[in-house]
Amino acid sequence: MRAVLLVILLSIHAITMAQTTNRCKFETEQIIGLFNQKEFQKISNKVAPMYSAYYSAITLEKDWAELIGTYGAYKSHRIVNLNTNAAGYFSSSAEITFAYLPFVLSLSFDSSWQVMSIAFSQSHKMYVAPSYVNVELFNESNFKVKNDLYELNASLCLPITEGKTPLVIFIGESGPTDKDGSYDINMPYKDLAWGLSSKGIATFRMDKRAVSHGIQMMFQRNNYESFTCREDYLDDLYKAIDTLLQIPSIDANSIYIIGHGQGGMLIPLICKEKPFVKGGVFLGVNHKRVQEMMIDQYHYLTKVTPAKKAEFDLQIRRANFSMSKKLNPLTEHKYMPFEVQATYWVWLNHYPHVKLSKKMKKPLLILQGQRDYQVSNENFELWKNSLKNRKNVGFKTYPLLNHLFEEGAGESTYSEYFTKKNMPEYVINDIHDWLLQSQLLPNK
Prior knowledge:
Blueprint: H1 2-36, H2 40-45, H3 57-71, E1 74-84, E2 90-98, E3 102-109, E4 115-122, E5 138-147, E6 150-159, E7 165-171, H4 188-197, E8 202-206, H5 214-222, H6 229-244, E9 250-260, H7 262-265, H8 267-273, E10 277-283, H9 290-304, H10 309-322, H11 342-349, H12 353-359, E11 364-369, H13 377-386, E12 393-398, H14 425-437
Parallel strand pairs: 7-8, 7-9, 9-10, 10-11, 11-12
Antiparallel strand pairs: 1-2, 2-3, 3-4, 5-6, 6-8
């Protein structure tokens, strides 16, 4: 019953968004134009009465004068977000380019399209959709996926188009990864999802349990309850997929999975357990065992940050210990990598992701950043060798990209993940083009 209700709500929400996108854009463009024309009283007249004290013509004029006085004249703008929420409020964001520094103008409107808030923020201090994203071509719905005791944040992007659309589902990497793959203001999964949805592909992404249920999971850990990749992600994902398949605008015959890091390891299993899935994309996915990857990573980090050698050596010892095929599921947490339950490592020790990948008959695309220190290029070469006899597998590497598929130079380090960047457009184009070539998308 909950699944049916969610489908109805999503359908209604999609219709509402389609009807309001143009209006939201119009109101935003109009306010930007009034700022540029210095018609501050006209902007103030658009403000809802209960907020008018905050946005008087004098206040708005002062704010705009400070912006152009410090950062130069207005040059151009582009809409970077259009959204609505369940209460019927609308919001938008536009990146405004001044002569010296871009800013983001964020607006919110009530159901009568009266302005509720006006805020300018420095563009480099917040997430901004990359230039290849066109937010006018799709609607994003944010909602909760409920599975037993867990409620997980999720986002579904539906292209504004007639007929059914293919769907790409994202699987995040290891750890408490959120639906956007966030590292501060960098959100590579959001880049990829919005990029593909701008090209007419529906996309779905959701948080892992650990993002918002850490305390509950800690309680289960302390009681030595079982924790494997199924509890970590698969059980919740399958619950979400059951609902997604009921949404009328999604083509149930064109479902596709993109997996990042350890999340990509699960694609062969998902394709086996959910036969309707048509294929998958590996983004920086390990061929070697997870613990072997950890050991490689810590050896690399020891060279980059030798001051932490003792800490890294401890994790290496734990990784080696956790690889025993006879590992006791009730082994004390303090002996396990990151003190994660032994059941997690037991499950991984018996999960034959390479063997399953060899047996897959569905198309695969394997992408690798050459500057990825978390999943080294050695893994890419191992994948090429293991899958060399399969005709429907594509391979591509990118010289400048790290594990987040963001560009950089020199040796990659964890700290670069927090330097503001977006996933390059060529990655989105390569995935989209490969889907077309693999006949997984309708060639319109």
